[in-house]
Glycoside hydrolase family 25 protein (Paenibacillus zeirhizosphaerae), 294 residues
Amino acid sequence: MQNRRPTDAEGIDASRYQGSINWRKVRADGKSFAFVKASQGQSYVDPTFETNVKGAKEAGVLIGAYHFLDATSVSAARLEARHFAEVLERVGGAAVLDLPPVLDYETNPAGLSKSAISSVAKAFLTDLEDLTGNRPIIYSGNSFSSNFDTSLGSYKLWVARYSTSTPYDSPAWKQWDFWQYTDSGRVDGISGPVDLNVYSGTEAELREEFAKSGGDEAMTNGEKAALQALQQQITELQALHNMPVPEWAKEAVAAAGAYNPGEPLLDVKSATSYDMYRLIVIMHRMGLFNKNGK
């Protein structure tokens, strides 16, 4: 893989272990981006996640979020993807963040085969993209990344290698997009050690690659369903509007159109069945009565 360059954009990643962060000082210290921990497993939420996102955005630091994977099966990976997506909604969803959501896959406690590891990763990544509308990236250690098959090379790589030597190639990747090169960095605004990272390009190139296009993000499944429901309602309303009025109802419809909202709708004591029908038409035109009788 390629080496770092002096012009590469510098950033950090952080979690609750960094405590309270002064993001303005982090930005002033030359850090242009950050990934912060959002979640882990099927239920854990990092207690500093929302505060870190808010602080970083206010300070002008490009912000992304990561999920630490515990899953040892495809079904568990899908549940974790859903949990991550739900946690992202606490800050407005993945589309609000500047950088792609991250799958942090770096351990194999169950001793899975390489094939199983790749299947677990694919399940998480596919479901997360469906849920958020944003294509994720993969974080992994340089050595662990050799477990992933070549099909996962279509995802951008954030690689961890704590060395001045360049990360080495793996089956899926011949270059990195982000490189975490130390876990003992020092940055203004953070009291203790913090992971340091670089992006494979300048800050301007980083912003250009991941800049939001102001509405061109892919819709989530929920947004698609809401749009389809709205389109169906529009179709139904258009059908009602274009429906011909039968002769026997024209008088009532005309009365509804001419109705003055300042007048009482009906004298109930002397009302006939026809008057009641006209009342229903008037209420429907006023939006007080729908076609289901509610």
